[in-house]
Amino acid sequence: MAPKRKPTTSAGAQLKKQRSVPTLEEKLAVLDLLRDGMSVSNVARKYGHNESSIRAIKIQEREIRQAVASSAPITAKVTSQVSCCAFTPPQSLLHATKQLIGRCGE
Fold first, then answer.
1. What are the residue boundaries of the HTH psq-type domain, all occurrences included (predicted)?
2. Of the candidates 27, 33, 32, 8, which has an alpha carbon nearest to the alpha carbon of residue 75?
3. Which of 19, 29, 67, 100 has the fewest CB atoms within 10 Å around its CB?
4. Could you tell me the pTM of the whole model?
5. CA distances, 16 to each of 12, 13, 19, 52 (Å)
């Protein structure tokens, strides 16, 4: 039986599509459009995203609005929280080991 795919050459190979993460500003605009009554499919078409992505933004509305309200930069794509000394038991063991080795910054 012959192979179903033809072998590709390096010259004919295409680059992967880069994953795009919407900024908090775009997410707020999406939430405002949804709140004003625009359908999920129309919002998805307007921004060029899948409907499932728009629904996921709608589900995370509370977290997104809290991130913006907590003075996060409006152009940030992702918010993160740094934990300094709040260790769970496995992390505290790792932290103690790093202190003994001398790799911990504290």
1. 16-66
2. 27
3. 19
4. 0.54
5. 13, 9, 9, 21
* CB count in 10 Å sphere of residue 9: 7
List per-residue pLDDT tens for the chain, 106 residues long: 677 776 666 666 678 888 888 888 899 999 999 999 999 999 999 999 999 999 999 999 999 988 888 865 556 666 666 655 555 566 667 777 777 776 545 5
Yes or no: say if 79 and 72 are a contact pair by the CB < 8 Å rule.
yes
Burial class, 43, CB count within 10 angstroms (exposed 0-12 / middle 13-18 / buried 19+): buried
